[in-house]
Amino acid sequence: MAPLTVFDLLTLHDFAGDLPAGWLHRLAVAGRPVFYRAGTRLFREDAAAERLWLVHSGLVAIDFHVPGRGDIVIETIGPGEVLGWSWLRPPHRWHFGAVVADDLRAVELDAHVVRELMAEAPDFGLEISGRLLDVVAGRLQSARHRLVELYAYPGDPTRQEAEG
After folding, report:
1. SS3 state at 151
2. Which CATH number fits the domain 6-153, given the four candidates 3.30.429.10, 2.60.120.10, 3.40.630.10, 3.30.200.20?
3. 115-148: b or e for each residue (b if 16 or more CB lie within 10 Å)?
4. What are phi and psi for residue 24, nearest 5 degrees?
5. Where is the chain membrane-spanning (predicted)?
6. What is the DSSP string of 92-124?
7. Count of CA atoms in the C-beta half-sphere (13 A) of 134
8. What is the pTM of this model?
């Protein structure tokens, strides 16, 4: 059995699978299949954001550095999800860090090439931007839920009101 091409892998991913074939072929030029072992640091906060990943298997921990406490994990990204959106807008620097938590298989896309494709084809650019906005909105919603869980406790009258 022949290995899957980048085009094949894109068609199997939630983020890109329903894009028109022509767009997938163009996007495939920017990508390559990758495998990273657990413990591999993909990027650090404030480094140049030059890649994005469409995760097929494994887990990636998104973190940020807290002086005196080290790297604090704030979210975990898994299969079917996208890692990286900081490459989309200047200054193209990571807002957080990321380390592979469980062996990772993904399509790694060159952000510079994707930005060029988006500029060349405005319809494609609008669609990719919208999908990435959905990713960002989902992350914000997840952060909101985590904050509610963190600060909610049995004596909290707002929690009792919501449950009762």
Report:
1. helix
2. 2.60.120.10
3. bebbeeeeebbebbeeebeebeeebeeeeeeeee
4. -65, -40
5. none
6. -B-SSEEEEEEEEEEEEEEHHHHHHHHHH-HHH
7. 11
8. 0.86
The residues spanned by each domain of the chain are 6-153
* Residue carrying structure tokens 């090439």: 113
Please name the amino acid found at residue 93.
R
In contact, 63 and 72? CB cutoff 8 Å:
yes
pLDDT tens for the chain, 164 residues: list them: 778 999 999 999 999 999 999 999 999 999 999 999 999 999 999 999 999 999 999 999 999 888 999 888 889 999 999 999 999 999 999 999 999 999 999 999 999 999 999 999 999 999 999 999 999 898 888 877 777 877 776 555 555 445 54
